[in-house]
Amino acid sequence: MPWLKLLHIIALVVWCGALLYLPALIIQSLQARLDAGFAQNAPLMPRFFFISIATPAALVAIFTGTLLFLLHQLVGGWLVFKLFAVMGMVAAHGGLGWLIARLEKGHSFGATAGSVGFALLAVSCMVTVLTLVLAKPMDWS
């Protein structure tokens, strides 16, 4: 099953990178829209990136992680904390999607602060997951 773990790690790297890039893309798109005034429609790039890259990577990462958990019968206290951190990453992912939908409807109030907030949530959850995964061999149940 090394290929499954490799696929999981690749999907996680892409998803984490997307969670870091999406807030910057949202802020840049918001600024471009504000600079153009009423002449420009909502930017298409944030939605395209969210739907075509971030969401499939998230789904593959979660699916392969679940398969690894089931196949290797992983149990331990660290796993519960890791799953809570993954839930935080999912919340940040959903929040960024919500911000993109709001931006497309022309609601730009709070988009910058929301993007920064969701980025901070994503980074803190990523650091937590990485810490727990690396500390797992210490066998704390």
Key descriptive features of the protein:
141 residues; mainly alpha; 4 helices; 82% helix; 0% strand
Q: How would you summarize the topology of this molecule?
A:
Blueprint: H1 2-36, H2 45-72, H3 77-104, H4 111-135
Characterise this structure.
By secondary structure, the protein is mainly alpha-helical. The chain has one domain (2-138). 82% of the residues lie in helices and 0% in strands. Helix 2 runs antiparallel to helix 3 and helix 3 (77-104) packs antiparallel against helix 4. The mean pLDDT is 88.
Give the class from helix and strand content and strand pairing.
mainly alpha
Tell me the number of structural domains: 1
Share in β-strands: under 5%
Cα Rg? 17 Å
CA-to-CA gap between the ends? 24 Å
Give a short account of the largest sheet: none
Number of strands: 0
- Name the helicity range: over 70%
Overall shape: it is elongated
Uncertain ranges: none
How confident is the prediction overall: mean pLDDT?
88
Number of helices: 4
SSE run: HHHH
Transmembrane segments: 6-27, 48-71, 77-101, 113-135
Subcellular location: Cell membrane
Cofactor: heme b
Enzyme class: oxidoreductase
